[in-house]
What does this fold into?
Amino acid sequence: MQPVERAEYEGVDYAWVMQTTFVVTILVGAPAAALLSTLVTLETWGARAAFAVRVGAPIWFVTAVAVALYAKRAEAGDGGAGTDDGAGSADDGEPIGNGDPTDDGEPTANEAGKGD
It folds into this structure.
């Protein structure tokens, strides 16, 4: 069995942007296009297809730009990597806690609210 390939992302994860754009466009754009179609007469399948393209393309484009800007601003879709808040986590190689090498992670009597 071959190992699964993994990718490390720096910046925007464009696969996440594409997947999110697809889902949001289906959930929001399809109903919007359906509502807009009630305002025009579409007698043939060709007219319906042309309408879907004329309305769907701008909806898709606006959604894609909005999702990409959100991902860039909020660092979304990066798998939670690179928080840079100073707190250690299990995957960044830094210890979690107060940095005391004698700290076993268990609260002391005062920390647990005992002995006050």
